[in-house]
Amino acid sequence: MRHVYECPMRWADMDLLGHVNNVVYVDYLQEARVDMLRTHGPAARTGELAEGVVVVRHEVTYLAPLSYRFRPVKIECWVTEVRAASFTMAYEIFQDDPEDEGGRRVYLRATTLLTPYVFATERPRRLNDVERETLRAFLEPWERAPRVPLAAGRQDALGHYPVHVRFSDVDVYGHVNNVKYFEYFQEARILLTARLWRDLPEGTPEVSMVVAQTDVDYKVPILFRAEPYDAWSWISRVGSRSATIESVICDGDTVLSQARVAIVFFDQESQRSTPPPEVYRERLLTALA
């Protein structure tokens, strides 16, 4: 069984290219997940499975740009794995479209690894029988390729971004909401590329970039405080039309979260990937870790 949630779109969801911003998609996934777990199965009566969980990992693949429309976008979600103290959910964001294969146009596919959590004691817990019964109603196991683990990279001034937590970033449990991490990594990534593109030769055309893939690991909760945390970003791969940026958010020597983001140079006229002017690749290669 799969759950379908119709998510209303907001004009504020759009980025400079007129597409739904990559961060906003993760907010859509959260809305769909909570809707599924609050409305189905025995565990829905307590609400703990919907709200008493923390995100351990997101893996998000962006397939096509989604533009604003006055009707909701559809999100299909289901469960791919149930373990003793965690479960994995999968999602597909789409619109019905008879001209596309399968009758739908898919904009994003993603998975989220979650674990039940006791916020009073700040400790994870095991799933109970009622929760497992609820999750198994949506279970569709699949074989997945092993993921490449994220690794710490270099920390220097080029890739440093101070993460200031806003009070509105924090959820009812006092933790920064998982969606906000995507914002922090986006801000760090934008600052890194802005520094790389500084003082380009006169006449160099501007380029557009879109996010193709984002993987985020959540290790230690980020809490609200006046002092900023440190985000460090670096270039880990450079291709002919794309690059990979990896980042960490730290509190001193403690890594709080890690991310790997694949960015693609994008032609707005053709709506396809494109090789950038060589000067951009040269700047990326000079920063390659």
Automatic annotation (TrEMBL):
Domain of life: Bacteria
Family annotation (InterPro entries): 4-hydroxybenzoyl-CoA_TE (IPR050563), HotDog_dom_sf (IPR029069)
Protein species of origin: Nocardioides koreensis
SUPFAM superfamilies: Thioesterase/thiol ester dehydrase-isomerase
Pfam families: 4HBT_2
Annotated PANTHER family: 4-HYDROXYBENZOYL-COA THIOESTERASE FAMILY MEMBER, LONG-CHAIN ACYL-COA THIOESTERASE FADM
Record's protein name: Acyl-CoA thioesterase
